[in-house]
């Protein structure tokens, strides 16, 4: 069982088989596969993602499509992961002392993973990686390109980074444990390594990046001539407020771990519940209403319009209304995975290494699904129809029936 002290006082059973550095690399590899699937599925739906993020298109039909290049990189990363973890298992055979002694091996794998992203290799796509790294450098300081230079790509990447906040925290913990005195990256993860403040700060950086981007958008709107379509910029301030709502969650969570008084812990726990509830529900509302342009929380007239299914919108690229309802429900559920801490039977699970990893994975999965509908929405906003020539819009189809009747 995960966390079983009988395994080793310095190692839990989950980390024995799947050390923290490999979890970080595994999720990073999944991210590349996920982006490839995003590109591929949206390509099949006639959504030109490269055009939306202002990435150069293919000059010839004979050139491999963008998702094909992404799959190539994902295959290389998967091969590296499989080779490294297999060698690790063969060298350690599940013996705790050997797992700890070979802590350098997963770190070598993470270094090789970074090299694959940074160093141009002949058989791997280099243009996409260069663009990604350039965007990451700009985004990492809260920068935001102009609309014609790929603003949507910056926003998309920064939003994705918020879902990898815990992964970034784990990466820091891995390095901190390895470089500490007599440390090893494969011991039981010490999430207080480096103090109780550093990890929450790292986890808060992605939200801070998006917060700054929202303020940049607000000031751009204020400096530009007034347009009714953009308004005075209040929506950007509301979006900034959404990202700032993550900070009380991190502060109260870190504060709980730093106090010993039971009464103080109880008060901080209640404050944390309030903070995380506000953050989750606010973010869910924004996903549905602003990021996906659904009418679920709009006025009754808009929500029950005959031109679209209840609570959705006129144009649906993925066609099946029940899919949208399912995704909305799933988004709410995965936004609230923290609620298992309130269950007396499940609260311990979220503190086990296996539980922590599962929650991280579910958040990454939620963001992967979110990308489909966020890109779909942006495509509809930026094109005359949002769909291919042969596609029939649900709203148009319903309107046609009304006319014929």
TrEMBL record:
Gene Ontology CC terms, in alphabetical order: cytoplasm; membrane
Location(s) in or outside the cell: Membrane
Entry keyword set: Membrane, Transmembrane, Transmembrane helix
Domain of life: Eukaryota
A Pfam family it matches: EXS
Ranges where the EXS domain occurs: 190-405
Membrane topology: Multi-pass membrane protein
Residues passing through the membrane, by range: 20-45, 73-95, 101-121, 267-286, 323-340
Keyword Ribonucleoprotein listed: no
InterPro entries: EXS_C (IPR004342)
Protein name as catalogued: Protein-ER retention protein
Gene: ERD1
């Amino acid at each position: 069982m995960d966390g079983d002290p009988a395994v080793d006082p310095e190692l839990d059973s989950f980390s024995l088989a799947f050390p923290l550095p490999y979890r970080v690399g595994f999720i990073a590899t999944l991210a590349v596969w996920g982006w490839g699937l995003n590109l591929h599925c949206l390509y099949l739906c006639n959504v030109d993602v490269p055009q939306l993020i202002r990435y150069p298109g293919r000059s010839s039909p004979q050139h491999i499509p963008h998702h094909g290049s992404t799959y190539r990189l994902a295959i290389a990363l998967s091969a590296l992961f499989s080779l490294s973890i297999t060698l690790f298992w063969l060298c350690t055979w599940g013996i705790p002392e050997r797992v700890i002694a070979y802590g350098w091996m997963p770190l070598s794998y993470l270094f090789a993973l970074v090299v694959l992203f940074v160093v141009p290799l002949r058989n791997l796509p280099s243009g996409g990686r260069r663009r990604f790294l350039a965007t990451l450098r700009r985004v990492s300081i809260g920068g935001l390109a102009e609309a014609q230079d790929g603003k949507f790509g910056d926003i998309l990447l920064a939003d994705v980074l918020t879902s990898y906040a815990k992964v970034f925290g784990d990466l820091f913990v891995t390095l901190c444990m390895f470089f500490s005195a007599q440390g090893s990256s494969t011991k039981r993860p010490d999430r207080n390594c480096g103090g109780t403040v550093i990890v929450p700060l790292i986890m808060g950086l992605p939200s801070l990046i998006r917060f700054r981007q929202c303020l940049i958008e607000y000031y751009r709107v204020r400096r530009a001539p007034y347009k009714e379509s953009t308004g005075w910029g209040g929506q950007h301030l509301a979006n900034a407020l959404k990202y700032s709502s993550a900070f009380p969650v991190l502060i109260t969570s870190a504060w709980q771990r730093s106090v010993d008084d039971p009464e103080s812990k109880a008060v901080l726990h209640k404050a944390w519940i309030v903070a995380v509830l506000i953050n989750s529900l606010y973010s869910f509302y924004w996903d549905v209403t602003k990021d996906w342009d659904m009418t679920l929380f709009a006025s009754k007239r808009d929500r029950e319009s005959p031109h679209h299914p209840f609570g959705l919108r006129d144009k649906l690229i993925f066609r099946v209304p029940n899919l949208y309802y399912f995704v909305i429900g799933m988004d709410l559920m995965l936004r609230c995975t923290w609620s298992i801490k309130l269950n007396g039977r499940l609260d311990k699970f979220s503190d086990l290494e296996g539980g922590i990893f599962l929650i991280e994975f579910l958040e990454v999965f939620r963001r992967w699904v979110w990308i489909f509908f966020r890109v779909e929405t942006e495509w509809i906003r930026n094109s005359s129809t949002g769909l291919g020539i042969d596609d029939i819009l649900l709203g148009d189809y319903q309107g046609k029936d009304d006319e014929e009747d």
